[in-house]
Amino acid sequence: MNGRLKPTQDLVAGLFFLLLGIGALIIAYNYAPGTASRFGPGMAPRVFSWCLIVGGALIVGRAILGRSDAIERLSFRPIFWVTLAIVVFGLVLPPFGLVITTLICAVIARMAEPGLVQKWTETAIVAVVLALLGIFAFVRALELPIPLWPDLS
Length: 153
Prior knowledge:
This protein folds into two domains: 9-64; 76-141, no CATH class. The protein is built from four helices and no strands. By secondary structure, it is mostly helical.
């Protein structure tokens, strides 16, 4: 080892989590934390901030020990397709409902990985599972007022 720390995936990710945790901790500083039995509005942000800081420090430690992969070349294909899926979800959910929107967005997001055009069966299974998870998590468990299907009236 020549004493220089190479920018690896773990180093960059760990530093990002550290900075994000420190920034969130600074923002949450003025919120009252409350007590262990009666949480205040600042308790959750502080706990999550410390989790980010500790996690980031552990990841940086792993990078310093030399057990990390080199940074790969940035690919814009996944960024484009996943961002498009998120935007489409926000625009299409109200008129089409959760089920159809989830199916559409799963197919769009699946385009992020090259070579998956032929794997339509796998894509369909993932889309249906995501739609079912969305129904049970958001509509049934959390009871959010999200329409499941388009309003055809």
